[in-house]
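Q: what sequence does this backbone want?
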């Protein structure tokens, strides 16, 4: 199994590369790019949430506790007194960090259901639910965050699977096949529960129409291809060979536009013919 440092470093590099493409494609507002990128970084350590004594598990449950305690606080702000809000905030914080943490680890096993493609899809859909319904982001932004989460999650599973092969001793470890799998055959109840959670998350998530139409846009990919390499010089100091400088620009450039910051800012654009 790859260690925490490897997972977080690789996840950050991959999320950063995706963020660069997203910024160049101009498909979301810049203020949305940071939380979307963080979703990819979180995805790169999320599969280790079922490892009780791991740093990812402690960090993730601490982060969840902070997030949900403030979500409850803001939702109840107009309905209770200050003293009651303090109790609600603190109660939610302690319950998620310690109570939910204990319940979760008493019902899971490492490299079980959470180390599977099924769990990766659930994490992506759940991210879209959080961004779309709790953070009130545009549907396209919500599913883009879900896509970042999915990629980060798959990076983690792939690294764990690669570490199961010992290149020096030319042997395959006993853990091979337990990290990157479609689902866990050993625990049918856990697999069924994860499948049900995935179905519920997809049902609660906003429509993925804007996301799919955006990433399938020919104009967007043409614009990215145009900006892939510098046209005249690298950083203004190194000349580019003429074969790159003479490349004609894309016919329409980047025409996908910027998605609004929130769902209510503007209607979703229709897909191009």
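A:
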């Amino acid at each position: 199994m790859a260690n925490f440092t490897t997972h977080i470093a690789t996840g950050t590099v991959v999320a950063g590369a995706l963020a660069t493409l997203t910024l160049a494609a101009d498909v979301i507002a810049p203020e949305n790019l940071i939380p979307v990128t963080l979703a990819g970084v979180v995805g790169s350590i999320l599969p280790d949430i079922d490892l009780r004594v791991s740093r990812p598990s402690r960090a993730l449950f601490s982060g969840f506790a902070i997030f949900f305690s403030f979500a409850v606080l803001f939702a109840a702000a107009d309905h209770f007194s200050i003293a009651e809000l303090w109790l609600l905030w603190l109660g939610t914080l302690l319950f998620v960090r310690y109570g939910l943490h204990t319940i979760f680890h008493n019902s899971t096993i490492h490299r079980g259901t959470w180390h599977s493609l099924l769990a990766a899809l659930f994490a992506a859909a759940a991210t879209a639910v959080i961004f779309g319904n709790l953070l009130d982001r545009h549907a396209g932004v919500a599913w883009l965050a879900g896509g970042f989460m999915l990629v980060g999650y798959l990076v983690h599973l792939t690294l764990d699977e690669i570490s199961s092969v010992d290149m020096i001793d030319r042997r395959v470890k006993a853990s091979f096949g337990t990290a990157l799998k479609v689902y866990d055959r050993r625990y049918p109840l856990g697999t069924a529960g994860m499948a049900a959670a995935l179905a519920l998350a997809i049902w609660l998530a906003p429509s993925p129409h804007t996301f799919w139409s955006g990433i399938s846009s020919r104009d967007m990919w043409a614009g990215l291809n145009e900006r892939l390499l510098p046209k005249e010089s690298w950083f203004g100091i190194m000349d580019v060979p003429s074969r790159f400088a003479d490349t004609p620009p894309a016919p329409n450039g980047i025409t996908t536009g910027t998605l609004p910051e929130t769902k209510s800012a503007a209607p979703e654009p229709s897909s191009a013919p």
